[in-house]
Design a protein that fits this description.
Layout: H1 8-28, H2 40-45, H3 53-68, H4 73-80, E1 85-88, E2 94-99, E3 116-122, E4 128-135
């Protein structure tokens, strides 16, 4: 029986090293966006948009939204806080929904709400691909 260039334990270690380096390379491709002085602390403090602070920040958010594309989902949560709604879509895509104004979700987050919201679609590799504004939660 013919053996490979390396014995089994060495091949296993090389594969593990290759996987680790690949994962490190993929995560290093993300970038922290330039927020141009956007007050993320005010955004984070207005959970669910229930105090209407986020609606007041909307013009500033729209100015920086193009800078947010390519941001990893982890970096997005670090910057803007946990989303009000997190949805998994087809092909391992994910939506983070942040409400901008008060609605029924302020009393019970499980209630359907047609309040203004912003949805960030993350691709299957976890990078922000699209930012949309709508009423309620995006349709899959």
């Amino acid at each position: 029986m013919k053996q490979g260039l390396f014995p089994f334990p060495v091949r296993y270690a090389l594969r593990s090293l290759l996987l680790f380096v690949s994962a490190l390379w993929v995560t290093s491709c993300t970038h922290k966006p330039d927020l141009q002085g956007f007050p993320v602390d005010k955004w984070q403090a207005d959970k669910g948009g229930c105090q209407s602070v986020r609606m007041g920040l909307l013009p500033e958010f729209k100015k920086i939204r193009h800078n947010l594309k390519g941001t990893s989902s982890n970096d997005f949560v670090e910057l803007f806080g946990r989303p009000d709604i997190n949805e998994i879509a087809d092909r391992n895509q994910e939506f983070y929904v942040y409400f901008l104004e008060p609605g029924p979700h302020c009393q019970d987050i499980t209630k359907k709400s047609d309040a203004a919201s912003v949805a960030i679609r993350f691709s299957s590799v976890g990078l922000a691909a699209e930012i949309t504004f709508q009423k309620g939660v995006p349709i899959k």
